[in-house]
Each structure stands twice: as C-alpha cells, then as structure tokens.
Amino acid sequence: MSAPRDKGCVGEAAVRMYLEAKGYVFVAGNVRVGHDEIDLIMRDGRALVFVEVKLRSEDLKGLEAVDEGKRRRLSRAAVGYLAKNGGLERAARFDVAEVCYDGAQMEIHHVKDAFPLSHGRYFV
What we know:
alpha+beta; 5 strands; single chain; 5-stranded mixed β-sheet; 124 residues; globular
C-alpha cells in the first residue's frame, strides 16, 4: 500500500464501511464530474451526502485540508451530479471523513455537514 492512490482507496473503503455501519447507504464512489471528483456519495435518510475523504498527514488535519478551493470544486461537482441525475430539488450536504492510520490502527473522524455549498457559477 505504498502508492498514494492505493492509500486513498483503502481510506475510502474504510469510510464507506464506517458510514454503512451507521446506516448510510452507498450510492457511488470516485464519481468524476468534468475535471472534479467526489470520493463517496452516500444516502443518509432522504439526504444525499457528498463525502470528501482525507488521509491524515502530520501537518494538516482532514477538515483543514478541505480549503476554499477544494470546497468550490466539490460544490461544482455536486451540483453537476445533481443536475445530471435529476436531484437539484433533493436535500444534500457535504461531509468530511478524516482517516488516521499509523500502520497498525485506523481511526475515522467524521464531520457531518462540514461546510455549505460554495457560491459561484456552476453552469456555463
């Protein structure tokens, strides 16, 4: 598990299992919308949840790693996904899941409703 993508896949799989154990339903993973990507799309009751998965690094915590630029890209991808799938009227939110792995133990910190939809132009 040395390549960054391999670590990301393991983290995303762990977060998916963690959320499913909490009652979330898996919808899709690694969804590309234009140049943007959504790590996980889950359903929590009636709400569609766009989940950004972050592996913990020494200098930046998961939520801090989702800066304004990343929030804009996630917002653009989410709006594009909802528009394509007829869900613009649907309740949706953004969650961030931080995966901390020290080589022996994995810990997941889940931040529900981590940030609001970023303002901007989504359609050209």
